[in-house]
């Protein structure tokens, strides 16, 4: 739509959560219930003295293609 939106107007889809990905890589997926713009937010404020390297992969699969995926490759879990 081209219209910008303020952070305070955005709806949080998942709660903020801390991951110990330095122990085991985090791998999960999210099925988006509504079409729209989704924003990924990485927050390192709990560790201001330690920088982090974040690697991520986002794959957008159209709804019609989801039906061809196996049940093990999709789900309603956390987004990395």
TrEMBL record:
PROSITE patterns: GOLD (PS50866). GO terms for cellular component: cytoplasm. Residues 1-60 form the GOLD domain. InterPro entries: GOLD_dom, GOLD_dom_sf, SEC14/CRAL-TRIO_domain. It comes from the Eukaryota. This is GOLD domain-containing protein.
């Amino acid at each position: 739509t081209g219209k910008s939106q303020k952070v305070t107007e955005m709806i949080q889809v998942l709660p903020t959560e801390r991951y110990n990905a330095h122990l085991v890589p985090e791998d999960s997926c999210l099925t988006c219930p509504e079409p729209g713009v989704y924003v990924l937010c990485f927050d390192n404020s709990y560790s201001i003295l330690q920088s982090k390297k974040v690697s991520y992969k986002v794959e957008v699969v159209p709804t019609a293609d989801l039906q061809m995926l196996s049940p093990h490759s999709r789900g309603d879990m956390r987004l990395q």
